[in-house]
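Teaching soon. Invent one.


***
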Amino acid sequence: MKKAISLLLCAALLAGLAACTTPVGDGAGEDGRVTITYSMWGNDEELRILNETIDRFEAEQDRINVEAIQIDRAEYVGALNTFAAGDDLPDTAIMAEDAVLMWASQGMLLDASNMYGADDVKPLDSLAFTYEGSPVGYSVSNEILVTYYNRATFAEAGVEPPPANAEDAWDWDTFVDVAKTMTLDTEGRNAHDPSFDPNNIARYGVMFCPDFWQLEVWSVMNGGAWYDEDGNVTIDSPEAMEGLQRIADLHLVHHVAPQYGTNITTNIDQDLLDNAAMEIHGQWCVGVFLGPARESAGLDYGVGVLPYMKEKVTLNTGGVNVAFATTDHPDEAMEWLKWYAQEENSWETIASGVWMPVSEIYYTDEEMTHKWVDNPNHPPYDEYKAAVVDYAYNYAQPTSWYWVNNTNLFNDALSTILAPCWSGNDTVENAITSNIDVLRAANQGNN
């Protein structure tokens, strides 16, 4: 779901997107309303849902119209840069997380400090993207990383599945042991068997989403971090590097996972049906893949918390709604974004399992939690509440891009640096320590 952000523009993209540009300086129309624009990535179904949401917003007040601009996800960043180059940005937009502070540092985003009053219901503090001490946007959803599994696979093996309660979370050794039990070669032998053939694996014990940013959690749970609270690079700490090496060793030493980054040809639902007993991925998979696969392919999936190394922790993130500084209608732009952030105004995405609520009440009030969870795509209430709702509320920490700039450049550099480690041609410690100056330069915006 997450793409690396780049400010480089392509001439072909400039030409191809020229027809999409929408002026942002519209005054009041014949109906006396101001029209503001909102750009989004997504398919036609997501656009349909958004337009229905806009219809409700326009029906509730008589001052603002909203026009949606649909852009393909793969072209989204280039399109925004095209608009910026032509001084034609939309008024508001959803943005990928690793772009937000970069745009804020260039003065392109409105300060969102005054979006919420003292008595307003506002998103959780962990969902605020902060630049120089001020929020510039809030995530539209409070997504976390969890462990999914195929219930039938675990039942057939007679093995207890990943725990839903964080209090019962597997330590790392237990996790590796279970993953070995659930990994089978083509002769049906698991990875504990001395005759196990690691070169002919029929089912892996675990797979990982290849979205690179998700690797950060393993450094954090091992007592390290990629950055300190001021945004300085600390990934060369022993704890941070060891956490990443443990991920590499799942393939290199324990043979329970494919080489990191190689399982990119199928989606999680197909992985759990055919290729893996468990997969570590984001909560959004409930609505995007797993709930629909239960209906269409009979996938009986479950959800548990992450295993832990030294600390029980997951990371939270979510696409960000922002208002651009170039808008002629800052008050109206903020009013639209504030309204859209209220769960009842984007409920279909929450009920489907694509988004998680951003307001505290959905995590602390049982009636509101039931409203959220008692929907067809979700697992049973008690399981989901423990593994997702309570886990997000009590154990989640923000992904570093909430407060660190240039994470796109850093992640690109780190991905290249770590590539030999996944295949066993280098160690994480050597790769990072030998290239720490490259990572520090990327953190400062140099690539």
User: Anything to note?
Assistant: Residues 1-25 have pLDDT under 50 and may be disordered. DSSP finds 18 helices and 13 strands in the chain. Residues 11-142+318-359 form a domain with the D-Maltodextrin-Binding Protein; domain 2 fold (CATH 3.40.190.10).
